[in-house]
Amino acid sequence: MLRYCTFWVGELFIGIEVSRVQEVLSHSSITPVPLAPAHVKGLINLRGHIVTAIDMGLRFDVGAVGSADGDTMHVILSDDQGLLSLIVDRAGDVVEVDREAHEDPPDTLQGEARRLIRGAFKLEGRLLLDLDVDYAVAISE
Amino acid sequence: MSGMDAIIKEFLAESAENLDQMDQDLVVLEKDPANQEVFSRIFRTIHTIKGTCGFLAFGKLEAVTHSGENLLSHLRDGTIELSPEVTTALLATIDAVRELLSAIEATGGEGDGDYSGLIADLERLDEEAGEKKKDDPKADDTPRKMKSGRIELVLEAPEDAKETETSGSKVAPKVKSPSKRRKKKEPPVAVDVPPEKPGGDSTGAGDIDAAGDQEIEAPTKSSLGESSLRVDVHVLDHLMNLVGELVLARNQILRLSEGTDDRQFEVASTRLHGVTIDLQEAVMRTRMQPISLLWKKLPRFVRDLSQQFGKKVDIQMEGQDTELDKAVIEAIQGSLLHLVRNSLDHGIEKPDLRRERGKSPTGILRLKAHHEGGNVLIEVSDDGGGIDHEAVLKRGLEAGLVSEAEAGSLDPKQIRGLIFQPGFSTARRVTNVSGRGVGLDIVRNNIEAIGGSVEIHSDPGQSTSFRLKIPLTLAIIPVLLVAIRGQRFAIPQLSVVELVRFDGESGGLGIEDLNGVPVYRLRGHLLPLLYLDEELGLADSREPGDGSVNIVVLQGDDRRFGLIVDKIEDSQEIVVKPLGRLIEALPYAGSTILGEGAVALILDVLRLGLKAGVVSEARTHQAPDEEPAIADTGERRTLLYLMGPADERMAVDFSDVDRLEFIPASKIESVADLPVVQYRDEILQLVWVDQTLPERRTKVRKITDDPDLDSLQVVVCTVDGLRIGLIVYRILDIIDQSMKVTRPASREGIETCVVVEERVTEIIDLRGLIRLSDPGFFERGLKPSSGGR
Q1: Between vectors from CA B620 to CA B618 and to CA B625, what angle results, nearest 5°?
Q2: pLDDT tens readout for residues B661-705
Q3: Domains of chain B (ranges plus CATH)?
Q4: Cα gap B119→B100, rounded to integer Å
Q5: Would you give the DSSP letter of residue B577?
């Protein structure tokens, strides 16, 4: 069984492996970075560390996050190169998924969104999209 | 195994420090063989390394140090003299040890270096010593300075002690009599240490820390083992980060305390504030190291080099205690060595030549360091031949760094500046140590990369000095905070030249538009301007503000430009944090967290200027490791791009341009058939460019043919210190033009031709143009030509 941290970006229900997530935060004030790619929303101060925040809505090309109610959450990822924040609309629970239940991404996903997803897990009544984190945070375009 | 690893790590760190000291010591000893303290330190170092590596089973290292130690012990017995040959062999031993140590550090093994040659050398010298001893039985009873019984004890008979005391600054402490020989653990009270001569601790032989600690802690402490300890730099970095966070937490508390009536809480938060400041300072201090750490490598370096060049050089140092952040010391190390090398190679003359010039045959290389403001000034100077401006200029011409035309107008400072240009240093003069085609441009790049600057001063025939201005620390820098469109940015103070603020209404001295390029006249010079919001893509449209304009005048590379911001806030010391990922290629030098926790970006002035084209790319895009090819100068020039009345294209080098003026045609007068105008209390002589350099096609048009023209565009230039106004038809642009493809000029008054926007453009040779118009201009100019008042 794999443990996935889940969140919503617009209507998309997305998950990443728990081991990659350092923490999930609510609001943090963001300093925009002029000239940066559009989905790079800006920099946040996480207890003295500067973290680049990515708007996952723009990354998935489904419109900026927080457009519904203005609320967003930061999913903080940590790896050997430092910290990154994925800004999402809403955070979900940590769920356990069966490795065997991994399927190809649904055909409804197109374009960039299709490339960002490695596959899907069928949960009860829902489809959890498995995010390709490394691709999502790579220097793109 | 980790216990063993820790021991090896400790051994490596300790040995590295001791070897650096030993380099220095051997050079001292060569000049002052009687210096017992220095000698015993050398002996101790080798002895300790030998002992430890035997224990750690590093066979090669043990063999090398063993031979070295044997030789040293004969030195100590006085059976051999410390000849240059012996010193060289001992220095080679240090190098070998260093090599082995770095192999151990990198791989855990001793590597495959072969040291049998060195060992044979050492043994040969050693045997010679042995023979000498046999041949010369006197050697044993002649009291020699080097002979001191057991070296570990650094003890001397009183007569000898006196002798050593006078022979150098660092002397062994006096000991009252041999009978009072100190045992290792005995407290230092038994030794009569003259208080005015610190540094002469004489702990026992086994206590290797004695040498290492001197350079870290005040030598007044007697219990050396406790006065300092080694700390991993990462621990310090972490500590520094934590303090940064504490500062932010403190700021939050302070803000809370402002909104409360709780007196006790206020008192507590004020106290927290004070302690935080002290803690921040203390942590900063832990990262500071004296520059002597870097300099102590130099005596050895200078000795080796001066032998190689056949020169005699004394090295003098001032301000060894000046402290710098560890990271800064590491960053400037290479540059400093390069400058020293440069002085020895090109600066200081050979002894014969020095005598001829009436100087002492021994040259002096002087290093000075001191604090000034938030910076450290380091000066590397020599009393050599100075900079031969003519030779530099000649070389500059050869390398294509200046054109013949420019060469005449360069002032000495500009000429000296040439030696910092890439491509100046030439591969044709390969010596072992300098002149490898990489030159002082690399030094300048490296120093500027950490926010410093290099200046050069020279008194021809007498001296040369390089002055480096280095920030104290890389982690904390002073910045100017500016605001644009509600967002704050930090600009490193080092790039800021001055601040200009004016109200739009003040007498028309505002921003002028030069065909799309905004410029500002700052004391008679045209300053290209950048709107920060436009550069950062923040401006959709330019709204007329309240009329006041804030310009931050910046120095990017060797060009100045002005940055227009909404608001200039205050100066602050900030902690530089690396930029996050995904945004590294943008014109930011880093980021920082401001007092109240907000993140601000630090602007990279040079990159901003490059991006906007106000700083030329010639230098910064030179790959530092590439050997500069001489044919491809890659030169770029900033040109004022002009259009003539018959749609021809011309250009003037922008660096010659002082001002751009519109002058009513009616104001032009004629003096001795030459056009002049009264201009700012002067009489400014004018040149009709269209008449002096007419369009050669049949369709002759003149500036004055334009019926709508009632005021004339005048480009005011300064040539050889004389001012002249060029009447031109129209100014099109200021362009940054590559000079890679040029065509020779086909007529007088033109320096060269380039192609701009598919149009052949003549670059005006100002001197030629003026002579065509008025052959006597420069001759009369010897007297002030602008004698209108």
Answers
A1: 105
A2: 778 888 888 888 888 888 777 888 898 888 887 765 545 567 777
A3: 2-220 (1.20.120.160), 233-286 (1.10.287), 290-471 (3.30.565.10), 481-612 (2.40.50.180), 636-781 (2.40.50.180)
A4: 14
A5: B
Q: What is the rounded CA–CA span in Å between residue B198 and residue B268? A: 43
Alpha-carbon span B654 to B649, nearest angstrom: 15
**Cα–Cα nearest to B717, from B649, B766, B644:** B766
Paired sense of beta strands B476-484 and B487-492, if any: antiparallel
Q: Is B707 on the interface with A (CB under 8 A)?
A: no
Q: How far apart are CA B40 and CA B35, in angstroms?
A: 9
> What are B776's two structure tokens?
């006597």
Give me the interface pTM, i.e. the ipTM.
0.89
Give the model confidence (pLDDT) of B206-261 as tens digits.
333 333 333 433 444 344 445 677 788 788 878 877 887 787 778 778 778 877 88
A25, A30, A35, A81: best mutation site toward chain B, by most B Cβ within 10 Å? A35
| Domains, in order of start, for chain A | 2-136 (2.40.50.180)
Nearest to B771 by CA among B721, B715, B719, B694: B719
Chain-centre distance for alpha carbon B86? 36
The whole-angstrom separation of Cα B67 and Cα B699 is 91
Cβ contact B426:B419 at 8 Å: no
Q: Which of B248, B577, B582 sits opposite A139 (nearest CB)?
A: B582
Q: What percent of the residues of chain B are helix, what percent strand, and what percent coil, each to the nearest 5?
A: 40, 25, 35
For A33, nearest residue in chain B (alpha carbons): B601
Per the document, the length of chain A is: 141
Burial B747-758 (b: 16+ CB within 10 A, else e): eebbbbbbebee
Residue B502 pairs in a beta bridge with B549
- What pLDDT band is residue A8 in, cutting at 50, 70 and 90? very high
Q: Are B504 and B548 in contact, with CB atoms under 8 Å apart?
A: yes
The answer to whether A111 faces chain B, any CB pair under 8 Å, is no
